[in-house]
Amino acid sequence: QVQLVEFGGGLVQAGGSLRLSCEASGRTWGRYAMGWLRQAPGKEREVVAAITWRGISTYYADSVKGRFTIARDNAKNTMYLQMISLKPEDTAVYYCVARNFANWGTNPSDYDYWGQGTQVTVSS
After folding, report:
1. What whole-number distance in Å separates Cα of residue 110 and Cα of residue 98?
2. Do 75 and 61 form a contact (C-beta atoms < 8 A)?
3. What does the pLDDT look like over 44-75, one tens digit per residue?
4. Which of 8, 46, 71, 83 is buried deepest, with most CB atoms within 10 A?
């Protein structure tokens, strides 16, 4: 089992920046890919970014390419999501997720472990 806790959500104006972090505990010696998933009211869940176990390969949804950057520090059991040029449509609950595979997945159902979520609100 892996436990995930997110930090860093909040309220920001359009065009601003936020950095989310996710701390993992439990079975952290496992080789697991991680990602960030979001859900906005009335919309489907979306994997916005993901990273392989070694951090060599990353995935970004088209909606966030060029604005979001995912990274991880396995020595600290921590993953990050740097978000810049935020838009009101980025408003959502953001979840840190992990899966029992070294490579990332692009569907929410690909992930085995979820954090509790952190709210990101971008005002216009």
Report:
1. 9
2. no
3. 999 999 999 999 999 999 999 999 999 999 99
4. 83
